[in-house]
Amino acid sequence: MEIKVNLGTLILTIINFFILFFLLRHFLFKPISDAINSRQQEIDTKIKDADENQMLADKNKSESEKALKDSKSQGRTIVEEYKKKAQVLYDDIVKDANNEAQQIIERAMKEAEREKHKAESEIQEQAVQLSILISSKALEKTIDEAQHRKLIDDFIVKVGN
């Protein structure tokens, strides 16, 4: 089979092809290419912004973690300071309570000593009164040895009470 090619039709077809190509390029390819380029620029800008935002977020995250760590450290320091202050306050309170208890004990001992001296002086006073009484009874009458012993025994019994 043999194909006959008409040279005029071939040239007109090639010319039509180039005219169609230039028309499509001017009216179709160029606007589509511009739209694709502008869309690509938007995408590139958004990717760049996203990268910048990611870096900023990472920076903020590291700063926040550092601030949190510093806050925890400061919190521990403050707690330790208050523990020390509380211990000093506790020690002062215990010391004051011990001093007060010691003073109460000393006052009680002094009071007991006073009461003891008071009781001793009362006993001495009673003994003196009994001695005077015995002496006055002895002077009133003459006593023999048995009465004398009885008076001494009575005196000892009364002083013992």
Automatic annotation (TrEMBL):
<dbReference type="InterPro" id="IPR050059">
    <property type="entry name" value="ATP_synthase_B_chain"/>
</dbReference>
<feature type="coiled-coil region">
    <location>
        <begin position="94"/>
        <end position="129"/>
    </location>
</feature>
<dbReference type="GO" id="GO:0046933">
    <property type="term" value="F:proton-transporting ATP synthase activity, rotational mechanism"/>
</dbReference>
<dbReference type="InterPro" id="IPR028987">
    <property type="entry name" value="ATP_synth_B-like_membr_sf"/>
</dbReference>
<feature type="transmembrane region" description="Helical">
    <location>
        <begin position="6"/>
        <end position="24"/>
    </location>
</feature>
<dbReference type="Pfam" id="PF00430">
    <property type="entry name" value="ATP-synt_B"/>
</dbReference>
<keyword id="KW-0138">CF(0)</keyword>
<keyword id="KW-0812">Transmembrane</keyword>
<keyword id="KW-0813">Transport</keyword>
<dbReference type="GO" id="GO:0005886">
    <property type="term" value="C:plasma membrane"/>
</dbReference>
<dbReference type="InterPro" id="IPR005864">
    <property type="entry name" value="ATP_synth_F0_bsu_bac"/>
</dbReference>
<protein>
    <recommendedName>
        <fullName>ATP synthase subunit b</fullName>
    </recommendedName>
</protein>
<comment type="subunit">
    <text>F-type ATPases have 2 components, F(1) - the catalytic core - and F(0) - the membrane proton channel. F(1) has five subunits: alpha(3), beta(3), gamma(1), delta(1), epsilon(1). F(0) has three main subunits: a(1), b(2) and c(10-14). The alpha and beta chains form an alternating ring which encloses part of the gamma chain. F(1) is attached to F(0) by a central stalk formed by the gamma and epsilon chains, while a peripheral stalk is formed by the delta and b chains.</text>
</comment>
<dbReference type="GO" id="GO:0045259">
    <property type="term" value="C:proton-transporting ATP synthase complex"/>
</dbReference>
<keyword id="KW-1003">Cell membrane</keyword>
<keyword id="KW-0066">ATP synthesis</keyword>
<keyword id="KW-0406">Ion transport</keyword>
<keyword id="KW-0472">Membrane</keyword>
<dbReference type="InterPro" id="IPR002146">
    <property type="entry name" value="ATP_synth_b/b'su_bac/chlpt"/>
</dbReference>
<comment type="function">
    <text>Component of the F(0) channel, it forms part of the peripheral stalk, linking F(1) to F(0).</text>
</comment>
<keyword id="KW-0375">Hydrogen ion transport</keyword>
<comment type="similarity">
    <text>Belongs to the ATPase B chain family.</text>
</comment>
<feature type="region of interest" description="Disordered">
    <location>
        <begin position="55"/>
        <end position="74"/>
    </location>
</feature>
<dbReference type="GO" id="GO:0046961">
    <property type="term" value="F:proton-transporting ATPase activity, rotational mechanism"/>
</dbReference>
<dbReference type="GO" id="GO:0012505">
    <property type="term" value="C:endomembrane system"/>
</dbReference>
<comment type="function">
    <text>F(1)F(0) ATP synthase produces ATP from ADP in the presence of a proton or sodium gradient. F-type ATPases consist of two structural domains, F(1) containing the extramembraneous catalytic core and F(0) containing the membrane proton channel, linked together by a central stalk and a peripheral stalk. During catalysis, ATP synthesis in the catalytic domain of F(1) is coupled via a rotary mechanism of the central stalk subunits to proton translocation.</text>
</comment>
<keyword id="KW-0175">Coiled coil</keyword>
<keyword id="KW-1133">Transmembrane helix</keyword>
<feature type="compositionally biased region" description="Basic and acidic residues">
    <location>
        <begin position="58"/>
        <end position="74"/>
    </location>
</feature>
